[in-house]
Design brief:
The complex is a heterodimer of chains A (276) and B (257). Chain A has 276 residues and is of the alpha+beta class. Chain A has helices spanning 5-22, 65-85, 93-110, 157-170, 177-206, 223-234, 259-265, 268-275; strands at 29-34, 37-44, 50-54, 57-63, 119-125, 134-138, 144-147, 150-153, 238-245, 254-256. Chain A has one domain (5-265): Glutamine Phosphoribosylpyrophosphate, subunit 1, domain 1 (4-Layer Sandwich). Helix content of chain A is 46%, strand content 21%. The longest helix of chain A is centred in the last third of the chain and has 30 residues, at 177-206. Chain A is globular and about 60 Å long. Helix content of chain B is 36%, strand content 23%. Chain B has seven helices and twelve strands. In chain B, strands 10-1-2-11-12 form a five-stranded antiparallel beta sheet, covered by helices on one side. Chain B has a five-stranded antiparallel beta sheet with strand order 5-6-7-8-9, covered by helices on one side. Chain B has a two-stranded antiparallel ribbon with strand order 3-4. The longest helix of chain B is centred in the middle third of the chain and has 22 residues, at 82-103. Classes of the chains: A alpha+beta (276), B alpha+beta (257). Chains A and B meet through β3 and α2 of A and α1 and α2 of B.
Chain lengths: 276, 257
Amino acid sequence: MYEEPYRWVEAVGNRRQYLDEQFKQGSPVVALTYDGGILLTTVSKGTPKLYEIYDRLALGGMGHPTDLEKLRFSLLEMAHVEGFNRSPSDVTGSRLIKYGIAPVIKQAFEEVYKAPFIVRILVAELGQKPEKDALLTINYDGTFEEVTGHAVLAATTAIQGKMLTYLKEQQQATLSLEQALNLALRVWAIGSMAQQQDEADQQAEAKPAASGSGSSSAATPSSNALIEHVRGLASERTIECALLERQAPGTSKYRPLKQSDLSRLLPAALQSVVAN
Amino acid sequence: MGMQGDFYQLLKEQGYTLGSSGQAGTGHVLTNATTILAFKYRDGVLVAGDRRATAGNMVMYDRTDKVLEIDRHSVMAIAGVPATAYEMVRVLEHSFKYYRRTQLQELSFDGKLRAVSKLLKENVPAALAGTGAVVPVFAGYDLEQGSAKIYFYDILGAEFEGVEYAVSGSGSPTIRGILHYLNTWGEQPLNALPEEQAMVQALRLLTSAAEFDSATGGVNREASLYPVIKLISGAGVQTVPDATLKPLYESQVVRYV
């Protein structure tokens, strides 16, 4: 029945709706450049969401863990085979995304008889020079985007927009790692709060007696409130941070931050959460 | 689907073969014109190699690096056909990285050793044909056990543990005896030597090898060419800079008569 063009468009539309539902509970991902490289941050539940892909490539993801694993493996495979057959400097994020996984994701999305990938992916690439640092994001339908400076993943594009607006307001010319971590967590909190708000709004809509639906708060919460939000969730989740460090010794520049690093670098209000 | 996290398997599935298979029994075995050595010292293991590459009686190159870092905690020193040896190092380097990144844990030290002997076994036809023999020394720091380890191989891939030291290459017979003597009757056993003393011994050993083996480069002070020396401890691999070797060589290796 999907042979008819109209039905197919309808099916793809339904699929979009179904997929959007899947990300509601997900944890946003924030990537920022700082003076020493690139920082990736999320606050994950259960499965880790930040991974090393190649010497200068890191991955952050949202969505179904198994789908994420599948794509992570194909990225790893492509990157290592290319790095071996040509050279490590020929392994670039944009080639892996554009010619590697984007076509696969798009095809899975549009083949309405088959299951799509429930993922949003962010790939951070540390350039040889700071101005070559790149951040790539790819959506479940195969749409990709390449940006510099900062990038986020969140449940909806509206929420991603909110996070980016906040980032632009707060962004300074150069950030130390500590400042970047603080900012990244606040941006994460903006995303997480907006996701909670969306869900609350939806539940309110479901009840007919609820008051006006335009209740999404206009004012930006204060820094303290944002950190407090992270603190509230951090007891049952893990603050996950990974770096691509330009000055790291050897060829692999990826380094996940350990608890001992975090308890030193995190904002004071959060240090106690990591310590235990 | 094969074994998960096995990069070499992945390469083979894509049609890769290591080196040329060669025609068995056609050739004379090429000599392994070089000297490499490894011994345990106080803080870990020292691996050193001269820098000369030869073809017959020709010196091809005087700045070869035969002590190659495979990852943060392991090093392979190579004697034998360089083309094959460098390719092996490339395969190993990518294999260990691939394993770590896919499996989210380091490959165990035993796993690394297994990978080395697997490659050498694959290379047996080329080794026997005389076109690709490689006789490496693999040394590293086993983080799980907190100890330094040295292994050496024959061209067929058999693996032997060098409890205190291991040598390979054409200059090795000369220094093997010296190492035994030093370790048994020296002022202190090799594994008690502090870092600086270990470096001095390595320089002296390579100079001795160069004295009796024309294929070993030794030290060329005029061109400031010093051997490659790497130290591996719990903190990782560290390459000793020439600036450190120069004063040690001048004060403790050269004898002015």
